[in-house]
Write a structure and sequence with these properties.
- The structure is a single chain.
- The chain is mainly β.
- It folds into two domains: 3-112, Jelly Rolls (Sandwich), CATH 2.60.120.10; 122-193, Jelly Rolls (Sandwich), CATH 2.60.120.10.
- It has strands at 3-6, 13-14, 20-27, 36-43, 47-48, 55-62, 66-71, 77-81, 87-90, 95-98, 104-112, 122-126, 130-132, 141-148, 150-155, 158-163, 166-171, 178-182, 188-193.
- It has a six-stranded antiparallel beta sheet with strand order 2-3-4-11-6-9, with no helix packed on it. A five-stranded antiparallel beta sheet has the order 1-17-14-19-12, with no helix packed on it. Strands 5-10-7-8 form a four-stranded antiparallel beta sheet, with no helix packed on it.
Amino acid sequence: MWQRRLFTHVTAMPWRNGQGVTRIIAEDNTHTLPAWRLSVADLLYDAPFSAFAGWQRSIALLGRGALVLREKTGAWCHTLEAFCEPYVFAGEDEVLSSCPSGAVRALNLMLRHSGHAEQKEDFVLHQKRFSIRNTGQTKNNYFLFPSTGRWIMCSGGVEHSVTAGAVWYCTSETVQNTVLEPMEEESSLYYIRT
């Protein structure tokens, strides 16, 4: 069964540099060292990102605006906007961020590098109707992050309105076959499976 959690109900942890806050939405609790972490960050001003050695980072913009990420030595530069696929970079990279259109909200998935075969994670942008099927084959966590517009979610014969400002989540033990339908032309949503 899908559960909804408003971002305002998740503790906001201020960045050490005072330029933003992070809300940890979920993290792996099945290993001594977490294998993954999912968070939402409010970037209030231009600021450097903290380095996370040994992690792979994927980031996407929730809502409107723009976020420019630049590796400190100039090795790469990438601009995130609404309707952008997630951008992946190494946690070791020293990254400078700028918010040319004002404060923005970013969705972050961090995966710890390990020496053995890793489970495949999904981090996908959706703008059209899609479905989630319970195959019952593996244990997974499912997360839905509406970014723009409005969606209707039908799961177990029940309809829910899905809008920005919250995360919807469930596990493979409780997920029912689910269909999500955009209700506005510019609706977008990020689906994450860990």
